[in-house]
Amino acid sequence: MQTAPDMTQRARLAAIAVMCLASLCFIAMHGFIKTVRGDVPIGMIIWSQYVIQTVLLTTLLAPHLPRIISSQLLGLQVLRALALMTAVSGMFVAVGLMPLADAITIGFIAPPMIAAAASWFLKEQVTRGQWLAILIGFGGVLIVIRPGTSIFDAASLVPLGAAVCVAIYQILTRPISQIVTPTSMLYTATIVGLVVSSIALPFTWETPELRQVAYLSVAACLGAAAHFLLIRAYRAAPASLVAPFTYTEIVWSSAIGFAAFGDIPDGATVAGAAILIASGLYLLRKPKT
């Protein structure tokens, strides 16, 4: 990967564009899920995403599977996969209960959570400024959720719980990635998700309509494309350059939420989103030594 000073302006813009496109794919996926969420049980939605992504990954990685499949740190890998599956399930439930932009914005409390958890569990050094950014990030979420007011919606706790699971997933990724390759972690997480969702499937199965099958298939393909683009973006440029553009998800979710569902973010959501973005961007900065 090129370092930031060595990159041409065109390469920088290309990497940023890829990250923005990945973010758009993630939000479009959630948009399709929101469309069918009221008619299709959550268990079927989760299973459909994992089965389609398993087929896609297995097809793409078939020649390399013997080298990719790894039993190293299997217990931690399974726990990581379950955390990811719970986070995905939580966000799918959340977008069915509340406006798309609200759910996505609340989900962005994950970066401050990860920074705090890394300090406690991984013994990573967190500066006073970073702790302040973490606290400000939590304040941003409180502005969106508005607990203790008549506007408070208990559904807001669902994406908050999903963010906790994202933090657990990311914290587990750190030690596993020292031994297991990213491709192996991705494939293991997909297989674990498929197995667990398949076990639950008989209890939630309802024969879907053709339209619902099409929407779920498109959502799964968008999710796979988003992960692929995300990897490409991080390979093409330093994280410090492209990571801030994951916050375009808030913009995309507002646009798609308005265009597809008529949702308009209120002032509190906009203010909370701005605070979360500022907090997250500060946490991405490298502390001065």
Structural notes for this entry:
By secondary structure, the chain is mainly α. 77% of the residues lie in helices and 0% in strands. The chain has one domain (4-284). The protein contains 13 helices and no strands. The model has no long low-confidence stretch (mean pLDDT 87).
What is the CA-based Rg, rounded? 19 Å
Main beta-sheet strand count, sense and barrel state: none
What structural class results from the helix and strand content?
mainly alpha
- Separate helix tally: 13
Distance linking N and C termini: 24 Å
Total E-strand runs: 0
The helical percent reads over 70%
In the predicted model, the low-confidence regions spanning at least 5 consecutive residues are: none
- Count of structural domains: 1
How much strand content do the residues show? Answer: under 5%
What form results from the Cα inertia axes? globular
- How do the SSEs run, as a string of H and E? HHHHHHHHHHHHH
- Arithmetic mean pLDDT: 87
Produce the secondary structure layout:
Elements: H1 9-37, H2 42-61, H3 65-68, H4 74-97, H5 100-107, H6 110-121, H7 128-145, H8 157-177, H9 182-204, H10 210-236, H11 239-242, H12 248-261, H13 267-284
